[in-house]
Amino acid sequence: MDAKFEHGLALIRQGLAILEKSSKGEPVGSMIMSPRVAKLGRIAHLHLRAFEEGGDLTLGQSREIRRHHWGPKVRSTANLFGTKDSGAILYRKVPAGRRPKDTDPIRLTKEGERLANEYRRLQGHAA
Which end of the chain has the smaller Cβ count within 10 Å, N or C? Predict the structure, then answer.
């Protein structure tokens, strides 16, 4: 499914959930997708799903996930990577300062897991 179409469906689902909650008098603040979740949540979710289905993931495999979502021109998205305890969504499990290689193992940070789970919750995925 096209990423833009899927995002549009997510916004419709989100709007319907807000209407349902507000009609019941329930608070709706937690139902709204933050810009960070909207921008990075799906990528974090796709990486988490790959980990759940296959165990390990490499930098090269991560690039293919990102290319599938953002298009073929994706080369390096360094802003998604950081240290294990950073605000980034991914980190490479290699010694600091080493040049990136497609075979480098990667993991989700705690922030990446949080974004993936929040995205899933707002999308209605069984997580």
Answer: N
Q: List domains and CATH numbers for the chain.
A: 33-123 (1.10.10)
pLDDT for position 76: 66
Query: What average pLDDT does the segment 63-70 reach?
Result: 86
Contact 42, 66 (CB under 8 A): no
Burial of 116 (0-12, 13-18, 19+ CB in 10 A): buried
Q: What is the pTM of this model?
A: 0.68
Q: Please give the structure tokens belonging to residue 56.
A: 């390990």
Assign 127 a pLDDT band (cuts: 50, 70, 90): very low
C-alpha to C-alpha distance for 126 and 52, rounded to whole angstroms: 13
